[in-house]
Amino acid sequence: MKKNSLSLLILSFFLGMLLIIEFKTVDKTTGGLVSSQKANQLAIELKSLRDRKEALAKELKCLEDRIDEYKDSEAKKSVIVKNLKNDMKKYEILAGYTDVKGPGVLIKLEEAKGSQDRNILLYNYDNLLRIINKLKAAGAEAISINNERIVSNTEIFLLGEKLMVNGDPIFPPFEIKCIGNPDTLEATLNLRFGVIWQLRTDWDLDITIQKKENIEIPRYSKKVKFKYAKPVDNKM
Questions:
Q1: Cβ atoms within 10 A of the Cβ of 156, count?
Q2: Which ranges of the sequence are coiled-coil (predicted)?
Q3: Are 130 and 196 in contact (CB under 8 A)?
Q4: Which of 67, 91, 128, 200 has CA 20 to 30 A from 52's CA?
């Protein structure tokens, strides 16, 4: 009986040891599986974060490219606007719609002192047109007569005892202002047998020509209305 009890005790001891060893083995195995699952999960999350980072980087690059495009577009618009403003100023000067200043010549015409004919300049106002044409041919950029700006549609005609320019009356003595190269303008006017020479010789007029570093010419104050002329549409 004692022998059987001892055998049973020994057998129970070994069974207990086997159970303990198996439990530890299972525990270790389970722990390894958990660690592997965590590693896989972390790897998946890391890949997801990397993919998200790459996607955000691409999106950021697209936004930066769009910003650069906007900047280029704004810069181009700025250049276009600047060029348009410069063109507008140039056309305003050519059309006479802005005050201008610059170097040029100042011409004064009046009857000689003691002259019996006080209306020689009025009745021969076509000589003023000849002077204006000579100035234009010499590169004049702006011209005025008694502060009346000469533009493409300026009308000059005699009305009674007054000369009408741009619809306003002017009277002698006449003062012509011209902006351009002073030397060229003066040389053109002082040509022998030219218009100024003829006026001095044939009409005994008192004419002075002065080169000026700065001349101011007022703008054309009238509004131009087109009743018949219309722009041509060049679209195909």
A1: 17
A2: 39-73
A3: no
A4: 67
Prediction pTM value: 0.64
Helix (H) / strand (E) element for 51: namely helix 2-95
Token readout for 77 is 């618009």
Q: Does residue 171 sit within a domain?
A: yes
| CB contact set of 219 (below 8 Å; sequence gap of 6+) | 96, 97, 98, 99, 100, 149
Helices (H), 113-176: 120-123, 126-137
Q: What is the mean pLDDT of each run of 10 residues along the chain (236 residues)?
A: 47 51 47 61 71 73 76 74 74 80 96 72 90 94 95 89 92 94 96 91 90 95 80 70
What residues contact residue 132 under an 8 Å CB cut-off, 6+ apart?
A: 143, 145, 150, 176
At residue 172, what are phi and psi to the nearest 5 degrees?
-65, 155
